[in-house]
Amino acid sequence: QVRLVESGGRLVQTGGSLRLSCTAIGRVSSIFYVAWFRQAPGKEREFEAAISWSGICTYYADSVKGRFIISRDNAYNSVYLEMMSLKPEDTANYYCAATTTAVSSSGRRNPDEYDVWGQGTQVTVSS
């Protein structure tokens, strides 16, 4: 089994930057992809970025391309989401998720395809 632990969420001002961390614990060799999703109050969970466990392939939502960077650190079994030029509309609970089965290219953006989830970390961007 795999468990995910997120950290890094906090209050930040508009235009600021933040790095979220997601550490995988357990049977990490079973992971295919790790993704970041976010969910604001009253809204659906939204895909932000994904990375293959090898670190070779990355995918981004159009809304965050050029502002967010997803990366992988093999030594620490961790995935990071570097967020820049933050806006108040980026305020949400951010979740790290992993899939332990192969998924299609469209499936990598679908939260239903991810079977392991972290507890979430709150990001608040003040105006």
What labels would you give this structure?
seven-stranded mixed sheet, mainly beta, four-stranded antiparallel sheet, 0% helix
Outline the structure in words.
By secondary structure, the protein is mainly beta. It has strands at 2-7, 11-13, 18-26, 33-39, 46-52, 58-60, 68-73, 78-83, 92-99, 116-117, 121-126. Strands 2, 4, 5, 6, 9, 10 and 11 form a seven-stranded mixed sheet that branches. Strands 1-3-8-7 form a four-stranded antiparallel sheet, with no helix packed on it. Strand 5 and strand 6 form a beta hairpin.
**Annotation field: number of helices:** 0
**What best-fitting shape do the alpha-carbon axes yield?**
globular
Identify the quaternary structure here: single chain
- Order of SSEs: EEEEEEEEEEE
Strand content: over 45%
- How confident overall, as mean pLDDT? 95
Structural class: mainly beta
List the helices and strands and how they pair.
Elements: E1 2-7, E2 11-13, E3 18-26, E4 33-39, E5 46-52, E6 58-60, E7 68-73, E8 78-83, E9 92-99, E10 116-117, E11 121-126
Parallel strand pairs: 2-11
Antiparallel strand pairs: 1-3, 3-8, 4-5, 4-9, 5-6, 7-8, 9-10, 9-11
Short description:
Helix content is 0%, strand content 50%.
